[in-house]
Amino acid sequence: MAAKNGGRWNHNIHYHPRILRAIPAGAQHALDVGCGEGMLTRDLRRTIPHVTGIDLHAPSITQAREHQNNVAQSLEHPSDIDYVLSDFLTHPFEPASFDFIASVATLHHMDAATGLARMRDLLRPGGVLAIIGLARSTMPNDLPRDLAGIALGITHRATKGHWEHPSPIVWPPPLTYPQMRSLATKTLPGSRYRRHLLLRYTITWRKPRN
Fold first, then answer.
1. Where is the Methyltransferase type domain (predicted)?
2. Percentage of residues in the chain with pLDDT exceeding 90?
């Protein structure tokens, strides 16, 4: 499934299709962790009937709600995405209450081990977790890869432009790529970790049914 991003592009949006392709068949309830102004949340809603977006950044949640209200008025039906201004780590979600959880460029804003464990616990058995994340490069080993990624990013910006999200930025990420891979392996046994050229990694994991 292609993301409906309104012509916007940045390093995170580039990998949104990987999130959307990970949605399990029949998913009814989804959570977008660190939803920002709701671009991915809205894409999830095109497939999943009940979607919640959560973020700590009040201006982003305000934008998300305003967009949803405008759409609801134009289509003459009530908003059907639940945008929550709260801390994902402490918000009182019911355990095992989501079929699909997505997280884009959010995990490095929190303690990653705590965040992964929280996502794991909120998934229903058989549910899928899909993460796009940032990690810290180690020099000089990562220099060739990073330079290639920067060159590719410049090419994409020249042809697609660049959209700057309104959410806060944390830089540098606290964990390195190998540390994130090790943490994913430990916390989410059987997960698939992949490092990508545009300075991102992805983690996908299906929660066992037993």
1. 31-131
2. 70
pLDDT for the residue numbered 78: 46
| CB proximity list for 183: less than 8 A, separation 6 or greater | 112, 113, 116, 175
- Cβ neighbours of residue 144 closer than 8 Å, sequence gap 6 or more: none
Q: Which amino acid is at 173?
A: P
Domain limits of the chain?
11-205
Closest CA to 198 of 138, 140, 139, 155: 155
Q: Angle at the Cα of 202 (from 111 to 82), degrees rounded to 5?
A: 70
Q: How far apart are CA 199 and CA 59, in angstroms?
A: 26
What does the longest C-alpha to C-alpha distance in the chain come to? Answer: 56
Q: Which fold has domain 11-205?
A: Rossmann fold (3.40.50)
Mean pLDDT throughout 104-124?
97
| 105 class by beta-carbon count within 10 Å (0-12 exposed, 13-18 middle, 19+ buried) | buried
- Choose from 58-67, 94-103, 163-172 the range with maximum mean pLDDT: 94-103
User: Per-residue DSSP letters for 7-31?
Assistant: T---HHHHTHHHHHHTPPTT--EEE
Query: Any idea which residue has 């809603």 for tokens?
Result: 45
The residue among 37, 4, 38 whose CA lies nearest residue 20 is: 4
Give the Cα separation of 157 and 20 in Å (integer).
23
